[in-house]
Amino acid sequence: MPIEKRWVVKPQGNPEAVAAMAAATGISPVLANLLVQRGIDTLEKAKKFFNPQLSDLHDPFLMKDMDKAVERVERAVRNREKIMVYGDYDVDCTTAVALVYKFLRQIGHKDLLFYIPDRYTEGYGISTKGIDHAARKGATLIIALDCGIKAIEKVDYAKRKGVDFIICDHHLPAEEIPRAVAVLDPKRADCSYPFDELSGCGVGFKLVQAYCQKNGIPFQQIEPLLDLLAVSIASDIVPLVDENRILAHYGLLRLNASPSKGLLSIIKICGLDRHNITIDDIVFKIGPRINAAGRMRMDENDENAAPSGGYAAVNLLIEGNESLAEEFGSVIDGFNQDRKCIDRSVTQEAHDFIEAHAELKAAKSTVIYNPRWMKGIVGIVASRLIETYYRPTVVLTMSNGFVTGSARSVPGFDLYQAIESCSDLLENFGGHMYAAGLTMRPERVEEFTRRFNAYVEENIDPITLQPQVEIDSELFFSNITPAFRRDLNRFQPFGPGNPAPVFVTRGVVSHGETKLVGADCEHLRMDLMQRQKPNTTIQTIAFQQPTHYEWIRAGHPIDVCYQIVENHYRGSVSVQLRIKDIKPLRSKQ
Fold first, then answer.
1. Which pLDDT belongs to residue 120?
2. Residues 484-515: pLDDT tens digits?
3. pLDDT tens string 38-92
4. Are 137 and 108 in contact (CB under 8 A)?
5. Peptide bond into 493 cis (omega under 30)
6. What CA–CA distance (Å, rounded) separates 448 from 403?
7. What CA–CA distance (Å, rounded) separates 470 from 205?
8. What is the largest distance, in Å, between two alpha-carbon atoms of the chain?
9. Quick count: other Cβ atoms within 10 Å of Cβ 427?
10. pLDDT band at 295 (very low <50, low <70, confident <90, very high)
11. Which of 128, 159, 232, 302 gives 95 a disulfide partner, CB atoms 3.0 to 4.6 angstroms apart?
12. What integer is the mean pLDDT of 469-480?
């Protein structure tokens, strides 16, 4: 039985401010209320929100060390030095590597290589193996993207090898900054850059923008790179405000109108080439396919295998030949199919184990360990378990003699602090409030499990263990007119900081088709009607919510909260409500 969700209606905007905004912008009071709720309370702010402009991007030279970074790249280009572009194996990293690599190639620099460490043998971040590879190949400059902010010893090691570093990162630095030629990170305490929520790829783009600005290269020449940046912004789940909103807006325009050959191949594989691509499409379809390559273990006995799965992703993203891009896209999709099979299997194993152990099922947290599970998918499995059990979760496996794993949290509980309370048991750990990675010796798993569970038991607010749906406002079905939908679309792109609004409509009933759909009849498709003048019927889909099927089919009333989306089917587009939750209206005895 699914956990019942709490519905929380957000505080509504000041009525006078809402009325003034509706009058000034010409949009409905419901949508004007959305603007005011989100801090957009003047006409000037509304104009900037609805009409993002590239001219409003911040000057890249406001970022600490940007002048040094540009000067070092200029020298490398002028002297025809070999440059290695370095990044990790997730989407933010591979898009960043592809973006900087493509730019350097675009300005005519030919002595280039890129490097993606192997998740299983090198782990995350800058590796000694990668530096040795750069030195062996004759590279004298490494541009590290989305990593490196804590690589103090590795940067010193590279310097002894005659290799300079430029670090482009967006993670929180420690007190000591690596002694690189330049360290670009808007989260540096001594950096006055006005926006510190860029993705790793976004920091790389600012380096490219600064190089162009100094060397008289028109911005239009780097606009084609914005499709990669949009994929990064969506996949890394950074706030879609300020520069990210502008860059995502123009990146989505590029992705829909003229994507690079590599991204086009993925778009076609996903079946997205016949409708408007959104942030959700990137998060749920494009991003996971690119990510899958870095998650899968390469065949160590295959002499022709790439050094890491992430190489396949970058090769796809930099490929300019359409037929080759389609080949790379098929390889990437194959990785994703394999990944889905494995994570489904492991999730089921984990679920069965929890169900078979009453004390684990009843706990307020989950720590589960199996040395056979693949390291690359334990983070996905942790997220899947939260969907079922909704509590802080740690999934562990064995890799290179150590127990390693990923942890995920629920809104309102600081996972990082819980793991930090066990830091004396760990070899290393890192992350933030809602996601983390950790490594320990096998003999410490039992004690870690005991202490982590005890910390959660003592510190979590019980209300945090109940899922919550935040509702922006109430809405009548009759309000959902073509003009309303058109104005609502202007709020996109949706994401953190600017979420897709959730509305609630009360007292609706089935009118027409109500049926269970999906391979296991796990989804509920309904035509719902709200009885008012005029009566309004609308098509809805409730994913993974079959529970109230009989009640609804019998014509009993329900309240629904939902997002308004476009449904694309066989070339036609219709409005659809994506149901977030359903509450039956049962008569009180």
1. 67
2. 999 999 999 998 899 999 999 999 999 888 99
3. 999 999 999 999 999 999 999 999 999 999 999 999 999 999 999 999 998 789 9
4. no
5. yes
6. 11
7. 34
8. 84
9. 12
10. low
11. 232
12. 94
As given in the structure block, the two tokens for residue 368 are: 């589960």
Tokens 């499709």: give the residue.
227
Beta strand pairing status for 503-517 and 435-440? unpaired
Q: Which two tokens stand for residue 362?
A: 């009843």
Angle subtended at Cα 94 by Cα 333 and Cα 387, rounded to the nearest 5 degrees: 60
- Indicate the SS3 state at residue 210: helix
Tokens of 428: 């290393």
CA 203 to centroid of chain Cα atoms: 16
Q: Side-chain half-sphere of 471: how many Cα atoms within 13 Å?
A: 20
Edge to edge, the sheet with strand 402-408 lists 366-369, 393-399, 402-408, 435-440, 426-431
Tell me, rounded to whole angstroms, the distance of Cα 176 from its chain centroid. 28
Residue-wise pLDDT tens digits, 394-434: 999 998 889 999 999 998 899 989 999 999 999 888 777 88
CB-based contact 198:192 (threshold 8 Å):
no
Closest CA to 139 of 100, 105, 106, 113: 113
What pLDDT digit, counting tens, does each position of 129-168 carry? 999 999 999 999 999 999 999 899 999 999 999 999 999 9
Q: Which residue matches tokens 């990146």?
A: 251
* Residue 76 backbone phi and psi in degrees, to 5: -65, -40
The residue among 380, 366, 356 whose CA lies nearest residue 465 is 366
Report how far Cα 68 is from the mean position of its chain's Cα atoms: 31
CA-CA distance, 39 to 175, in Å (whole number)? 33
Answer whether 162's CB lies under 8 Å from 139's CB.
no
3-state secondary structure of 304: coil
Q: How many alpha carbons lie under 13 Å from residue 563 in its C-beta half-sphere?
A: 15
Q: What's the token pair of residue 178?
A: 């690596």
| Residue spans of alpha helices (H) in 476-582 | 482-489, 549-553
Q: Which residues contact 589 (CB under 8 A, 6 or more apart)?
A: none
Is the preceding peptide bond at 224 cis, omega within 30 degrees of 0?
A: no
Could you give the angle at the alpha carbon of 244 between the alpha carbons of 176 and 474, nearest 5°? Answer: 125
| DSSP secondary structure letters along 25-37 | H---HHHHHHHHH
DSSP letter (8 states) at residue 302: -
- What is the SS3 assignment for 520? coil
pLDDT (tens digit per residue) in 526-581:
999 997 767 788 999 999 899 999 999 999 999 999 999 987 766 677 889 999 99
d(CA 97, CA 118): 15
